[in-house]
Amino acid sequence: MWWKNVSLGLSVCAIVGLLISINTTNERLKRLEGDDPLNELELSADDFENFAVAPGPAISFDLPEKITFAGDSVPLKLQDVRERLDKELHINTYLHTSTIFLMKRAQRWLPQIDSILKKEGIPSDFKYLPLIESALLNDVSPKEAVGFWQMLKSAGKENGLEIGNEVDERYDPLKATRAACHYLKTSYKKFGNWTLVAASYNRGMAGIQRTLDKQKVRSYYDLYLNDETSRYVFRILAIKEIITNPKKYGFNVKPQYLYQQEKLRYVEVGETIPDLIDFSLAQGINYKLLKRYNPWLREERLTIKKGKSYRIAIPV
Question: Burial letters for 92-120: b for 16+ Cβ neighbours within 10 Å, e otherwise?
């Protein structure tokens, strides 16, 4: 029966080890309690091991008492509206890594985007739209929508962008913002309501108008929509709420860790550049940096037609 004694001994050791682990984890959790549990938080490898054994509790956050989009109140008295906002708030709150890096990039880009929106007469809340479209990355979607504002080639051209083999201005965050403003203003002339304008950026103006006419309502919040468009405005609202009140949702990204706007100088070129690699070296940088600050340059050369010129950004 020796194996029974060994088995019993191992069981006792396992129980004792588990109790020690739980006690150690509880002590560490106590250290995290307070008004700002993420502030000055430093975890060792042992901390991560113990949190893996006994993770901290997930929290259900209170909804804001009121929230607006572009000056329009969101009707939180409607239960389905509350639940849709609740869902998007919690999804984005617990996408820790993605939301943290979104905050870091937002520090660099939102002031620049907001400045353009203001000049174009677009409500400031639209600066959150590219956060949910692309996470402020120059990505390409499966449908070949490109850039911060995820524009299709046809939409980009319709709204004033140059799109070709060597130049694709959808990859220029600021020019793409101006093009988006053109679309948003056109949509506002049609709907006269900024929430519907936001929804139309996802569904298209014709799609939103058909749905309004068919369902005989006038508000986005009264529409029965496909899942993507039904979530779209609520995703914007959730990101706005989290970016505006990060500590309320458990985020404490210190200022020194946020990505700042970088200093650039601009070189205006009016003649064809046969080799952008040589051009970048002549400017005192490498080709990697040229592409970082000018992602709209799509090839290793730049053909410039007579009377045309481009501004190329160079890091200082």
Answer: bbeeeeebebbbebbbebbeebbebbeee
